[in-house]
Fold this sequence. Notes:
Number of helices: 1
Largest sheet: 4 strands, antiparallel
CATH superfamily: Hotdog Thioesterase
Structural class: mainly beta
CATH topology: Thiol Ester Dehydrase, Chain A
Oligomer: single chain
Distance between the termini: 28 Å
Strand order of the largest sheet: 3-6-5-4
Number of strands: 6
Strand content: over 45%
Amino acid sequence: MTTAGVAEWPAPGDALTSTRDLIAAHFASAAPLRVTARHAHGSGGMLSFDCSVWSSDETPLAEGRLNVYIPEDPDQLLETLQK
């Protein structure tokens, strides 16, 4: 993941819900896309991100909101999921 030119790995967590609006009916499978995710609100374990997908000519293709839960102890979550 790249944020403002700085590579970062996201923390482990669970996507809880999402909402979306598809603006374009289709686009070419090999088309380059620009995807953005901006922190909308929340702190601690519950966060929401406003997300968008744009074509290379800056045509909006889709937008939505992703709600996620990031646990206090990601290692414990991973251990639980592996059982």
